[in-house]
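Troubleshooting entry. The earlier prediction with zinc ion gave an output that would not parse, so I re-checked the input for stray whitespace and re-submitted. Clean input:
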Amino acid sequence: MGDDTDAAASRMAHDGAGEEAGSAEPIEYVHGTEPGLAERAARTSEVELHPPGRVEEIIVTGPCPACGDTTFHVEPLFLYRGATARGRDVVVEVICACGVAHPGAPQGEDGCGRSWVLSVLVPG
Ligand SMILES: [Zn+2]
Ligand SMILES: [Zn+2]
């Protein structure tokens, strides 16, 4: 185990000595999206339509395509009132909320800052 007494110095001199196996350090917080995130998320995310039959919200769970931590997003469909979401693709914007403390994250943010979109087909 490393004795990390000087945070500022260790931040500059981080050379990745490869001592730790199995536990990756959290990546740095970056607000925004990146190419490829949406594609990766589309393959790994689990989408649940709730309640079944009369969908009122879309629940997305799965690993964040950027940091790899498990994240969770609920998209309420009452935003679509006046127009039905049934039988169409709803584009959900997911923002990482993995709960891991990523370096550089502003207070109140509980993810790595990355966001991506997921297209969800709501059955008619
Ligand atoms: Zn994370
Ligand atoms: Zn993340």
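This one parsed fine. The two ends are 56 Å apart (CA to CA).
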